[in-house]
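Following up on my earlier thread - several people asked me to post the actual chain instead of describing it. Fair enough. Here it is, all 116 residues.
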Amino acid sequence: MKIIKTLILGFSIFYCSTAFAQEGDNFVKLRHGLPNVLEVTNVRVYSDSPASAKISIWIAVKGKVVSVSRGKEDWIITIRTRGQVSTYVVPEKSFKIVGEESKVVQIRALHFTEGG
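Reply from S.P.:
Thanks for posting it. Predicted structure:
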């Protein structure tokens, strides 16, 4: 029950923001919803087609990453901040390329930078 409340709280603090990636001369804007302890800083596109794109995402973490696991369609990220441990579920479908929202985005990897 405590985990469910934590997840509900985590989802309630989601917000939308945008990150940019550069591949060649093309810029990619990524729309996402993440808890306020996570911030996308960079995106790299590995493959792109009209129907799907495979990307890697760099995320700055306000705290220390305790664990990361990948489910079928989501990432479960546990973070320690000021002595408290919180778990967040980030669905892969929350990451969309702006202007191409119908395109399926496949996450190749998440890279974390810890701090603050």
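The first helix runs from residue 2 to 12. That should answer part of your original question.
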